[in-house]
Design goal:
There is one protein chain. This protein has about 325 residues and is of the alpha/beta class. Helix content is about 35%, strand content about 15%. An eight-stranded parallel β-barrel has the order 1-2-3-4-7-8-9-10, surrounded by five helices. Helix 2 links the parallel strand 2 and strand 3.
Length: about 325
């Protein structure tokens, strides 16, 4: 089981010194990967409902001060040696397909093959409009087509593509990603379209359990979601075992509600022993990686919580 953590892309902790100290500290602690979120701008008025809040309110905007995701990814790659770098998630329609494929391939080459592309179709219409992205209503189709274009560029010696949103031919695309077969793709989202996207294109499904519309917050609910994924993967003509599962838990511990919406115990809540038991159960379901956020407003506090998770939870595995 690989363990990752949420690296800051916004606020004071995303500044040069704290960002480097957190990422190098995580690497020294033996964590496998860091995740990086994606917003280009934060509109001052947002009517779009945030999927991971019961009220639909987006509470993570802060002052709107945020690093660009892929540039921060490249920077952290240069300051670390083993830590894998996960876009969590990259809003695929935010960047032109060929340019994004090139940026990701370059980071993968220069990092020695440490990039993992977590993807999503996006949820904030106002941000799409502000940055001139393709129409928000078409974001699912755009995402699927851009991902297909990524794969073409990363794997073909003479890439060619003719879609509704992406067209290229008679080009050289080099260097290819360092990872054979291209950069692994983790598909975020819990909805039916997200599961179908995973079944067609993904190397792994990457849900967040606390989506009120599609909750995966108990072992029973997550088990049902994975079973649905396996069915859709087979229907897509792929081996269900070829698609992994990774799960992002924004928080862990006794500060979380003890019960999920279905009455079962809420995953990653409770004592360190409870959480260690969750990890063992998730491993039996085929989950290969999990990541979480660590508490604190300063680097020492976050690193201390990280070490606590390692010594009190991971030591029980």
């Amino acid at each position: 089981m690989q363990i990752g953590f949420s690296a800051p892309t916004a606020g004071p902790l995303a500044a040069l010194d704290p960002l480097v100290r957190l990422c190098t500290g995580a690497e020294e602690a033996g964590l496998a990967y860091a995740t990086f979120s994606d917003h280009v701008v934060i509109p001052t008025e947002i009517a779009s409902p945030y999927p991971y809040s019961a009220t639909g309110e987006f509470t993570n905007q802060g002052t709107g001060e945020r690093n660009e995701q892929l540039i921060e990814l490249a920077f952290v790659a240069a300051r670390t040696g083993k830590l894998k770098l996960v876009t969590s998630v990259m809003v695929v329609p935010h960047r032109p397909a060929v340019l994004a494929a090139k940026q990701l391939a370059t980071i993968d080459v220069l990092s020695g093959g440490r990039v993992i592309l977590g993807i999503g179709a996006g949820w904030m219409k106002e941000e799409f409009e502000a940055i001139g992205a393709p129409p928000f209503a078409e974001r699912g189709k755009v995402t699927d087509e851009y991902v297909a274009a990524f794969k073409e560029l990363w794997t073909k010696d003479r890439p060619s593509f003719a879609g509704a949103y992406v067209k290229f031919d008679k080009i050289t695309f080099a260097p290819k990603p360092a990872q054979k077969g291209g950069i692994p793709i983790w598909v975020g989202g819990e909805s039916g379209p997200a599961l179908r996207r995973t079944a067609r294109y993904g190397d792994a499904w990457y849900p967040i359990p606390n989506n009120p519309a599609f909750p995966m917050d108990s072992l029973g609910r997550l088990t049902a979601g994975i079973a649905r994924l396996r069915q859709l993967t087979a229907e897509a003509g792929r081996d269900p075992k070829s698609v992994g599962v990774t799960v992002r838990f924004p928080r862990w511990g006794e500060g979380l509600p003890a019960k999920a919406g279905d009455g079962e115990r809420k995953l990653f809540s409770g004592t360190p022993a409870d959480i260690a038991s969750d990890i063992k159960a998730l491993a039996k379901l085929g989950v290969g990686a999990i990541d979480t956020g660590f508490s604190g407003s300063t680097v020492p506090e976050i690193l201390a919580d990280m070490k606590k998770f390692k010594s009190e939870v991971l030591a029980r595995l």
